[in-house]
Design a protein that fits this description.
By secondary structure, the chain is an alpha+beta fold. 29% of the residues lie in helices and 26% in strands. Strands 1, 2, 3, 4, 5, 6, 7 and 8 form an 8-stranded antiparallel beta sheet that branches. The longest helix has 35 residues.
């Protein structure tokens, strides 16, 4: 019988220990006897004795004029400081900064850095169902509408009713661009806060909690930004791997060319796969100018495949060549050139077209 009593007591203790409120979990706990202590006078040394050397190793710093005087006892928050998580490629933080700010460096030249950051932020707000109160692109300043959150507050184990806490927050985001436009800092500032618990209203929070809210919203935006990048990369890789249509045509300068039905950022890596499949060795490349220096060494099917096929490779000498990849509206032009940078004539381009088009249309080329 005593054993059952012990089990019951232990169960009650476990239940009670699990009913700590959210406030209890972030506030100091334990013995607060220090609040009753009085300041003691300095150690007095008789005049006839030598004064010993005192150490300041454990001396408490002076309290600043603006320091809050009510953060004592269980009102003292003990939560860990909120940290910004720069998980996006090219993002970083400034060590020791007390502001809620994250720095970005440009890693994708498909659009300007400020447009990329603002698009990520606005897309996050849109997914959250939160509107934009105001947005000034010239001033690089955005103010959100109210972000409303609701949750149930932990109540005492013996209370039958639970309270609902509703929190409303509005943030201001400021983007500071470097003059060269390839680096930027995104600042988050909590400008409005309103918390209601039943009939109690709180419209002010301490500086520590304010920074926690600002860092929290920044981390959510950074996480959403990183997720968008992963989705875009997966979509881009899928498009590169799938077959693309290609036709004969002309580049912007009127030279005979292959015209790929894809934009430049998809056609460029796809064409590198095609070149490798056809037996070209890329010796040097410049994506910004769309220039490729290649050497043709024959197809990569190997001697075993040649036993069962009449295929003898491209109608092309094993030599060095240059290839120009360039934008052509929503499509991409590929101009073949010899080692002297002279473009191939229509006859040579036409003779090579079928081999290039067949590989370009294949699905699941190895990346």
């Amino acid at each position: 019988m005593k054993q059952y009593g012990l089990v019951a007591c232990a169960t009650v203790v476990m239940v009670l220990s699990g009913c700590a409120s959210q406030q209890d979990r972030v506030a100091a706990s334990g013995d607060f006897d220090y609040l009753n202590e009085q300041e003691q006078s300095r150690f007095q040394v008789p005049e006839e004795l030598d004064t010993p050397q005192f150490s300041n190793a454990y001396r408490l710093p002076e309290v600043g004029d603006n320091a809050p005087s009510d953060l004592l006892g269980n009102k003292l928050p003990v939560r860990s400081p909120a940290l910004i998580l720069p998980i996006v490629s090219g993002s970083h933080v400034q060590e020791g900064s007390k502001q809620a700010v994250v720095n970005f460096d440009q890693v994708d030249d498909s659009q300007s850095l400020d447009s990329t950051i603002w698009n990520a932020l606005i897309n996050y707000l849109d997914d959250l169902g939160v509107g934009v109160h105001s947005f000034d692109k010239d001033e690089q300043l955005l103010v959100t509408d109210w972000i409303i959150e609701q949750d149930d507050i932990d109540s005492k184990w013996y209370e039958l009713n639970s309270s609902v806490r509703e929190i409303g927050k509005r943030f201001e985001f400021k983007l500071d661009m470097k003059p060269h436009g390839r680096s930027a800092s995104l600042h988050a500032n909590l400008i409005d806060y309103l918390e209601t618990i039943d009939n109690n209203i709180v419209n002010d929070i301490q500086g520590v909690q304010s920074r926690t809210e600002e860092v929290g919203i920044l981390n959510k935006i950074i996480g959403h930004y990183e997720y968008q990048i992963r989705v875009a990369d997966a979509k881009r890789i899928r498009m590169i791997r799938q077959g693309l249509d290609m036709e004969l045509g002309f580049d912007a300068d009127g030279h005979p060319a292959f015209v790929v039905d894809a934009d430049y950022d998809i056609a460029w890596p796809r064409f590198l796969l095609v070149l490798r499949k056809l037996g070209f060795d890329v010796k040097d490349l410049d994506k910004s100018n769309g220039l490729l220096f290649v050497q043709y060494g024959g197809d990569d099917e190997g001697w075993w495949s040649s036993l069962w096929s009449d295929k003898s490779g491209l109608a092309l000498d094993k030599d060095d060549y240059r290839m120009q990849v360039s934008e052509l509206g929503e499509k991409t032009a590929i101009t073949l050139r010899d080692n002297e940078n002279e473009p191939f004539d229509v006859k040579r381009v036409t003779a090579l077209f079928d081999s290039f088009a067949q590989v370009m249309a294949q699905d699941d080329l190895d990346i």
